[in-house]
Amino acid sequence: MLYIGCHLSSVKGFEHMGKEAVRIGANTFQFFTRNPRGGGAKAIDPEDAKRFLTLAAENGFGKLVAHAPYTLNPCSATEKVRDFAFFAMEDDMKRMEYIPGNYYNFHPGSHVGQGTEQGIALIIELLNRIIKPEQQTTILLETMAGKGSEIGGRFEELKAIIDGVHHQDKIGVCLDTCHVSDAGYDIINDLDGVLAQFDSIIGLQKLCALHINDSLNPVGARKDRHAKIGEGHLGTETIVKVINHPKLKGLPCILETPNELDGYAKEIEMLRSAYK
Ligand code: FE
Ligand code: FE
Ligand code: ZN
Questions:
Q1: Residue 39 confidence (pLDDT)
Q2: pLDDT digits (tens, 9 = 90+) for 210-226
Q3: Where do the H-state alpha helices sit in 39-78?
Q4: 224 assigned to active site
Q5: Which ligand sits nearest to residue 105's alpha carbon?
Q6: Catalytic residue among 15, 20, 142, 182
Q7: In Å, what is the CA distance from 152 to each residue of 2, 119, 133, 267?
Q8: Residue of 267, 275, 274 lying closest to 25 (CA atoms)
Q9: Of residues 15, 20, 214, 224, which has the active-site annotation?
Q10: Which ligand is nearest to the CA of 225?
């Protein structure tokens, strides 16, 4: 089964996103839990969440991917920024329980000169304060492009974070095709080899979701500029290989390409017809 969708605006609530997803041929989607560049969050309407759960069940939706705000940096050098990461994520975990059993993806963070080791230690510290054994949400670390002092460009860094977390059943990875390519993993010519590396370092059982993006830049560029499918260096062929890869089948595929809804609808239709 292909679970495919795109990033949707959460401003009008869950039921609205669900209807929008159905309208564009999606059976999963991603949304920001709060203002991506600020951090403020609107209260969750429990009735809206319930109506969404019914709609999702009726339409056979796969797991959703919530995305933490970009301003959330657990390994900032500034205490105030680290505190925001804690309070935003703690609040997001409570909010996610209204739609239990889904994913919450975040960018591990930028160590801003403190060094990778210190950065990883701070990320682990945050996750161990946040994760409760009874929570129904799985937190996902996103594979990053390795831009600036970003942590998560190497599979080894993600593995080190996972190793430090106490409740490892609550943590997984979201692989972004643009980011891994930008980080230097050649999924164009050697998707099997990259997945074998992922498997030997992290373990493919930890891979929970995919961000499906083309990249404006060649492998190793460390730029993180997304392109529409077929309009970047990865190309349609690579993306089609990813969604059809036997080791990746069944994972929610989220498009984060520069599109409006009609553009997403076309990409979803194209990828559905390329799914074997
Ligand atoms: Fe992201
Ligand atoms: Fe992404
Ligand atoms: Zn990106």
A1: 82
A2: 999 999 999 999 999 99
A3: 46-58
A4: yes
A5: 1
A6: 142
A7: 27, 10, 24, 27
A8: 267
A9: 224
A10: 3
